[in-house]
DNA sequence: CCAGATTAGTTGATGCATCAACCTTGACGT
DNA sequence: ACGTCAAGGTTGATGCATCAACTAATCTGG
């Protein structure tokens, strides 16, 4: 129950700084290249990866692990900008179905290319393969730890 | 210039998920324990760690690596909630100096304890020492990579 | 079949992050 | 000195994230 050791504190500080800077540059490059935010991007990709024409909000929400109000607000903004459309859902008339517009589909592909390239450039080409593996394992371990206590 | 490999894509997905969930639980626990946001916390700790009574906004900004308008907005909100006070700066009459209120100082200590304990619990006690070291190295490497191209 | 509980989704409010525009004050070259 | 320019900070606008309250449709037990 002791405090953090010095190396631990330094490791944490370094991680925090990296996390902030990295998502900063990735978000900025994405916005510069496509005009999309990361939230836009996540939604577009999630919808586009589906084989079906349209996706239920519910399915999106589960895939993204977002709160329902977050998704609702986000979809409203994206609809206003002409990236998606929303229509009634057949199976459940409470639900709604999301469909990409032509522009939405186009941007989804474009953005995916830019984003993956940036991840490659900033992360994958910078770390050794062993480090990439280590990062994956660390992430998986921490995720487990979180999910153990938070149901 | 190829795409991400499958393991790379999985590693990235895992990292992203961990990043979101971890800062989620840490932020939530901090808020539950103290009523502070992470932004509040960062500012309080940064001010409190100074030996001096009051700190210039400029110094804070550099330490936190925040934009000036971000800090200004944050300080306004914190002032309204009675965590800090702001006064004119002697050396440079453009500047402003920040001082913690009694409540601010108290919360800073309280929050630090809770936060460090949570980092220990979720991260340091979960990873092996080697993994902590690896994470620190990975973070430092990525930070270097980012700073090479940006600035 | 119906009453109560769940669930899908929306809405409004608030805090946080960023951008651009602005104001004041200090710095500097001439 | 003085004119110009840069720097410290504030403000307003917008988008994103979360919470709580709400509506409407579905499910479930009796």
From TrEMBL, chains A, B:
Q: Which Gene3D superfamilies match?
A: Winged helix-like DNA-binding domain superfamily/Winged helix DNA-binding domain
Could you name the domain of life of the organism this protein comes from?
Bacteria
User: Which example biological process does GO assign this protein?
Assistant: response to stress
Tell me which InterPro entries the record gives: HTH_MarR-typ, MarR/SlyA-like, WH-like_DNA-bd_sf, WH_DNA-bd_sf
What single Pfam family name could you report for this chain, choosing any that match?
A: MarR_2
For molecular function, the Gene Ontology terms on record are: DNA-binding transcription factor activity
Instruction: Name the PROSITE patterns for this protein.
Output: HTH_MARR_2 (PS50995)
The segment(s) forming the HTH marR-type domain are: 1-144
Q: Which PANTHER family match?
A: MARR FAMILY REGULATORY PROTEIN (PTHR33164:SF99), TRANSCRIPTIONAL REGULATOR, MARR FAMILY (PTHR33164)
Name of the featured protein: MarR family transcriptional regulator
